[in-house]
Amino acid sequence: xxxxxxxxxxxxxxxxxxxxxxxxxxxxxxxxxxxxxxxxxxxxxxxxxxxxxxxxxxxxxxxxxxxxxxxxxxxxxxxxxxxxxxxxxxxxxxxxxxxxxxxxxxxxxxxxxxxxxxxxxxxxxxxxxxxxxxxxxxxxxxxxxxxxxxxxxxxxxxxxxxxxxxxxxxxxxxxxxxxxxxxxxxxxxxxxxxx
Length: 195
Known about the structure:
alpha+beta, globular
């Protein structure tokens, strides 16, 4: 992980310097239609039987002076998606059975596999946003040296990490079915339904 990002984030939170205003963050958002990706249970990764993964390509346009990670955090917070983190995406397939997740690409590019081992491979870049429903497998196959992601979660649900083991499978499938639709869209707030 980049050593600068955690330090930068601490300074931003302590001083407020570098944190964009509400208007600045919302001004970076573009209206785009997502690619909707539905994945079947592959016997290893259950995926989500109700909700498709939503991939918003170039959903944000960052200015040269924008701190893209701070913009994404502010935007997700405005729309009620908190507990934000800055990092990459794990290089092994995993999923969250009790909560949805949003991934905003702050900078750089990477190749991801979405939906588990039998899923779809996509190239992502700065400004892309992916809403990963509970149960949907995701992993980073290859990332550039500057790749940075901001992730966040809706206010309801509990973070957990599953890797597709048979021991967790039955409980995970039950948990996935219980995760409902968040009240706000992480990009568009209340003006657009998530699913």
